[in-house]
Inverse folding.
C-alpha cells in the first residue's frame, strides 16, 4: 500500500541558517525505510532562514515512523542548514521531530522521532540503535578536557584545532562563534571616544565625560551615599554575601565609642547585635590570594590590591541598611576599623576598597565559577549520554544554549595569560591570583550551596522581619519554587518509581560520566543516583543556577561596574593602615587608571547585553524551541508559566513603590540559560 507522507519543515530564522544545498530525506519506520527523496520544489527557494516548507513523500507504508535521515550534499560553510523541526502527517497519523541543530554540508543527520521515552521504553530495535549511534557521534564531538587541564576546577569541553567547538554550540550568529567579538566591537566603539577624554585623567571627575556617548549608570550620582552602598548589598551585582550576625567577628575591634551617633539613640552595639540589627559582608576568601605584581623592563613595579575586607551594616529605625564599620584586613593591630565618624575621604576610600574586594570575589567565584563553570559538566554529561528523545535531554537542552561557547570565550579572552583580567583586576597577572581564587572557591563549594533558600537561611536573612528589604530573596525564591514544581512534575511523569531511574541505563551513564570527569561526587547531594527526588533536586539547582542565579550576578554589570569609582576591580595603592592621611588626590591615585576604566566599562557593557535571539523563562508567545509534545508535560509547562507570570506581576508591583527598582529577576527578563 502506498502512503503519502507530508513533511512540514521549519528552518531556523538565524542569519545563515538557510541553505541552497541539495537536501534529501529517507523516512525510517517500524516496517522498513523509504528510498531517498530529494526535497526540491520547482521555482521555489527551499530552506530559507525562518521559512516553513512542506513536501510530500510517496512511499510504501512504513508503520510507525522512527527517524528521518537527512542528507546535505552541499560544499562549504554556506551549505550548512540549521533545521528546527519537522512535522509529518499521513492521514490521521502524525509525528513530531524536534532537532534545533545543524545538518552540515556533505553530511547525513538522523533526526529521531520526538516522543519522550526512557531507554527501556523504546518500542523498536532500530530506534534503540539510532539513540546509541547519536550518542557515539556526540561523544566524538564532545570530549572531556584532560584532567590536568582542569585540575582544581570543574570538568570542561576539550577544544583544539583537531576538535573544534561543535557548530551546534557556536555563539549566536557570529562567524567565529565567540563573545570575544562582542567585547572587541564594544572596545572599538569606546576607543572612538578616547581622543575626547582629558589627557590629565582624574578618574573621579573625568569618568563622567566618557558617558557623553553612552548611557550613564543610574547610580553615578549617588554612589558616595551610604544608603546606596548598603542597597547594593541586597539588590546589587552580588547580593549573596550579606549575613546576620549576633557577635562581632574575631579580630574586628569595635566599641560603642567608635559608633557615636551611628546607632539608634540609647542603643549599644551589644544590644544591636542581640536584636539582629547588624549584618556582615565578609570577603575573607581573598586573604591568601596572590595580587598583581609585575616589574617592567625599566624596573618599575606595578602592583594592585583587593584586600580581604569586611563591612558591618546596621538596620536603622527607618528599616534601611547603612554601613557603620569597615576593616580592610584581618589583623587588629595593623588594620584599623573605619567608620562614618572618620574623615570623609577615609570613609569613602574604605567603601571603595570593600567594593573592590566584592568585585574580585564576584567575578571569579560568584559569577565565573558558581554559574558558568559548574554548569559546563552538566552540559557535557547531557550531550554525551542523553539522546534527543530522553525526557531529561528535552528538559535541559534549551537551558544549555551557548554556554560552552561563552565559557571558552571567557577562558581565552578574560582568564588566559595576557587576557583582559590580567589588565584590569587585582587578582590577575603573572601569579594567576584569579585562577587561584577560582580554585579556592571551588574547593569550598558544593552544589547544595546553589540552593537559594538554604543559602539565605544559612546567612540568617530568610526572615523578612530580620531583613525587610531584600529583593534578591523575595524575587528568587518564587522562581525556585516554580522550577522545583515543574521539574518534579516532568520527571514524575516519566519516572513512576525510583526503580525506573535505577534502571535507566542512559541516565546512569550520565551520572557516571558526570562524577568521573565533571566534578567529584562529594560536590553533589548524593553519592548514587537512585532516587527521583535527588534528580529533581539536582536538576532544579542546575536550571535555577543557569537562569535565575546567572541573571542575578550578570545583568547588572554595566550598572554596577561601568561607573568605575563605585566598584573598581583593582586598587593601585595598598589599603591605608592609619587614619586621617587620605585626601581627594589620594583616592584618584588609588582607583584604576584611564585604560583600566575603559576596559572595565567595555566588559561590563558586553556582559550585560541581551541577544536578539534571547529566549526568556517567560517568553512572549511561548518558547521558540519546544521539545515536548506530551499533553501532560505541556500542562506542567503552562502551570510553570502561570507561576512565572505571577512572579513577574509581583516584581512589577513592588518596583512601582521602590525608589531603585530591581528588575533583573523579573521572569520575563531572565534568559533561559547562560548566553553571555
Amino acid at each position: 500500500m502506498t502512503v503519502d507522507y507530508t513533511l512540514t519543515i521549519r528552518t531556523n530564522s538565524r542569519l545563515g541558517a538557510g541553505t541552497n544545498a541539495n537536501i534529501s530525506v529517507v523516512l525510517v519506520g517500524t516496517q522498513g525505510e523509504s528510498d531517498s527523496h530529494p526535497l526540491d520544489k520547482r521555482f521555489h527557494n527551499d530552506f530559507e532562514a525562518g521559512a516553513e516548507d512542506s513536501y510530500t513523500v510517496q512511499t510504501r507504508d512504513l508503520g510507525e515512523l522512527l527517524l528521518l535521515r537527512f542528507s546535505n550534499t552541499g560544499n562549504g560553510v554556506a551549505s550548512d542548514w540549521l533545521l528546527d523541526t519537522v512535522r509529518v502527517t499521513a492521514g490521521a497519523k502524525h509525528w513530531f521531530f524536534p532537532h534545533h541543530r545543524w545538518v552540515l554540508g556533505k553530511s547525513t543527520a538522523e533526526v529521531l522521532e520526538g516522543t519522550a521515552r526512557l531507554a527501556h521504553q523504546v518500542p523498536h530495535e532500530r530506534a534503540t540503535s539510532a539513540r546509541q549511534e547519536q550518542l557515539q557521534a556526540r561523544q566524538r564531538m564532545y570530549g572531556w578536557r584532560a584532567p590536568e587541564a582542569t585540575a582544581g576546577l570543574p570538568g570542561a569541553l576539550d577544544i583544539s584545532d583537531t576538535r573544534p567547538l561543535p557548530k551546534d554550540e557556536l555563539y549566536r550568529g557570529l562567524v567565529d562563534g565567540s563573545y570575544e567579538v562582542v567585547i572587541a566591537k564594544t572596545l572599538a566603539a569606546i576607543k572612538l571616544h578616547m581622543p575626547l577624554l582629558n589627557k590629565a585623567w582624574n578618574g573621579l571627575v573625568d569618568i563622567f565625560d566618557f558617558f557623553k556617548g553612552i548611557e550613564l549608570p543610574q547610580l553615578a550620582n549617588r554612589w558616595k551615599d551610604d544608603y546606596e552602598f548598603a542597597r547594593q548589598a541586597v539588590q546589587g551585582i552580588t547580593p549573596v554575601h550579606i549575613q546576620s550576625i549576633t557577635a562581632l567577628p574575631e579580630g574586628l575591634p569595635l566599641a560603642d565609642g567608635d559608633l557615636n551617633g551611628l546607632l539608634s539613640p540609647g542603643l549599644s552595639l551589644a544590644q544591636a547585635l542581640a536584636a539582629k540589627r547588624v549584618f556582615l559582608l565578609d570577603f575573607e576568601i581573598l586573604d591568601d590570594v596572590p595580587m598583581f605584581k609585575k616589574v617592567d623592563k625599566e624596573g618599575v613595579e606595578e602592583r594592585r590590591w583587593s584586600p580581604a575586607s569586611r563591612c558591618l551594616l546596621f538596620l536603622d529605625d527607618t528599616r534601611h541598611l547603612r554601613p557603620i564599620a569597615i576593616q580592610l584586613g584581618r589583623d587588629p593591630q595593623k588594620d584599623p576599623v573605619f567608620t562614618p565618624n572618620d574623615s570623609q575621604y577615609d570613609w569613602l576610600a574604605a567603601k571603595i576598597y570593600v567594593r573592590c574586594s566584592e568585585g574580585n570575589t564576584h567575578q571569579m567565584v560568584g559569577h565565573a565559577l558558581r554559574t558558568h563553570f559548574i554548569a559546563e559538566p552538566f552540559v557535557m554529561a547531557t550531550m554525551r549520554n542523553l539522546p534527543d528523545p530522553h525526557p531529561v535531554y528535552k528538559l535541559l537542552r534549551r537551558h544549555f544554549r551557548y554556554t560552552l561557547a561563552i565559557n571558552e570565550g571567557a577562558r581565552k579572552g578574560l582568564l588566559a595569560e595576557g587576557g583582559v583580567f590580567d589588565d584590569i583586576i587585582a587578582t590577575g597577572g603573572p601569579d594567576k591570583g584569579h585562577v587561584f581564587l577560582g580554585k579556592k572557591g571551588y574547593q569550598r563549594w558544593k552544589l547544595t550551596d546553589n540552593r537559594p533558600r538554604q543559602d539565605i537561611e544559612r546567612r540568617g536573612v530568610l526572615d523578612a522581619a530580620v531583613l525587610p528589604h531584600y529583593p534578591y530573596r523575595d524575587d528568587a525564591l518564587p522562581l525556585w519554587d516554580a522550577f522545583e514544581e515543574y521539574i518534579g512534575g516532568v520527571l514524575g511523569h516519566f519516572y513512576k518509581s525510583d526503580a525506573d531511574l535505577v534502571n535507566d541505563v542512559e541516565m546512569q551513564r550520565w551520572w557516571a560520566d558526570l562524577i568521573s570527569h565533571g566534578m567529584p561526587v562529594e560536590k553533589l547531594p548524593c553519592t548514587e543516583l537512585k532516587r527521583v527526588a535527588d534528580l529533581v533536586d539536582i536538576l532544579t539547582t542546575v536550571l535555577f543556577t543557569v537562569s535565575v542565579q546567572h541573571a542575578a550576578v550578570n545583568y547588572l554589570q554595566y550598572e554596577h561596574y561601568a561607573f568605575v569609582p563605585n566598584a573598581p576591580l583593582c586598587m593601585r595603592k595598598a589599603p591605608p593602615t592609619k587614619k586621617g592621611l587620605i585626601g581627594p588626590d589620594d583616592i584618584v591615585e588609588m582607583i584604576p587608571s584611564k585604560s583600566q576604566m575603559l576596559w572595565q566599562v567595555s566588559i561590563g557593557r558586553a556582559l550585560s547585553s541581551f541577544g536578539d535571539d534571547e529566549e526568556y523563562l517567560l517568553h512572549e508567545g511561548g518558547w521558540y524551541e519546544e521539545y515536548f509534545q506530551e499533553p501532560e508535560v505541556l500542562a506542567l509547562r503552562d502551570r510553570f508559566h502561570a507561576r512565572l507570570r505571577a512572579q513577574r506581576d509581583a516584581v512589577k508591583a513592588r518596583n512601582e513603590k521602590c525608589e531603585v527598582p530591581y528588575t533583573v529577576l523579573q521572569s520575563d527578563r531572565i534568559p533561559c540559560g547562560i548566553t553571555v
